[in-house]
Records
---
Amino acid sequence: MPSSSMLHVRMDEATKARGTAVLDAIGLSASDAVRLLYHRLIADQAFPLELKVPNAETRAAMAEAEAIIAEGRARFADGESLIAHLDAAIGK
């Protein structure tokens, strides 16, 4: 495993608090966001990001996916298994 190093960033408290709230809504920590930024800087050789807070429809889909995982509902190894399951559910 590669060694890691610290990156210290100074900013005013209000900016930090507001930014942290947005990152929480997106599902990222401040460290995750900085790591993502650096990886994209390297890959794109440009300042890359346009992340937004998910809208209500996306948040509902994310919550549904988390519920499916938590409840252990059907998951499929491939598309054919999914189609077979759906066909069986509607009686085909």
---
Amino acid sequence: MRQLVIAAVAATLSWGVGAAIAQHNHSHSDHSHSASPAPSSAHSEHAAPASDTREFVKFPEKLVEHTLANMRDHLLALQEIQEQLGLGRPDAAAKIAEARLGMSSLSLHGAHDVAKFMPKGMQDAGTAMHRAASQLAIVATDSGVTGDMKPVFSALANVTSACVGCHAGYRFK
């Protein structure tokens, strides 16, 4: 079971690094501040879209930088969660999930100040991510008792799915 967990974490991390590099290269070509849609599987390849059809969202410049910093911290939190799961520490992963991504993290991120500039769909995606992270925290804590990691990876996928959905639909102006 431990080997399965380590293999899953390694695959997730390697995909994440590849996506980050691709996004980094993409950002230099169009000066976009948001990620492009992720492939639906590690084996699929997509042609580059002819144009970026994501909705532009205009934030005050100070909030753009603040929000981008929050998103980078969200990515770091996801990496730390995966690391803790790979080390067999679901309780530590649960604490990170709730404190940094879950519903109790909203005041830490200044969500109230930022939400008023978001279209409804973007607000909904953010709320879905925070709720999914709180659910991940619960499931990860439970797995410390049951030893069943499958629900943890499913819950983690729900968190990242909300991130991918938002980045696929929106970008900053």
